[in-house]
Each structure stands twice: as structure tokens, then as C-alpha cells.
# Entry
Amino acid sequence: KAGQKFLKGPIPLNWLSTAARQPGKACHVALGLWFWVGVKKSCEVALSMSWLKAIFGVSRYSGYRGLAALEKVGLVSVVRHRGRKPVVTVLGVIS
# Structure
């Protein structure tokens, strides 16, 4: 429907299936990242935990754990600064 938000693809299936096999809310975080990658047209995005809460119902702490799980398996790299949104780079994507 016109005007609705959507995920922009293509999303590599092996990337998504690896994210889906991670514990907790890692897949929710991964889908949120892909949404922002499509919006910003960049593989590097600042991830808002309050946005994840509003859209996917992921708490701040679950979001951080999910992001750490994605980072551990090499799907993303994260730059963290105290009091700021984490800056996430989605790896393995050609932009």
C-alpha cells in the first residue's frame, strides 16, 4: 500500500538465516538494521534503541544483547560511545 514502510532488498538469505539462528532478539535487531540501511542508503547506520522498542517491542537491553550477538558472528561491526546511539556497519553487503 502506498505510503507504508517496507524493507528494501535484496537482503542476502545467508546473512538473514545466520541472524535468525542467534539467541534472543537478534533477528529483530537485524531486521531493524536492514530497514535503516534501506532508508539511509548506507551500510553504516546509527541504531536507535527507542525506535526498536516502538516498532518491534525490543527493550533497550534486549536490543544491545541482540546487537552483540550479531557482532559476535561477524554480521555487523559496532562503534559504541557512552550516551550515544551505537553506529553499526552491516558487513558482507555491497552497496
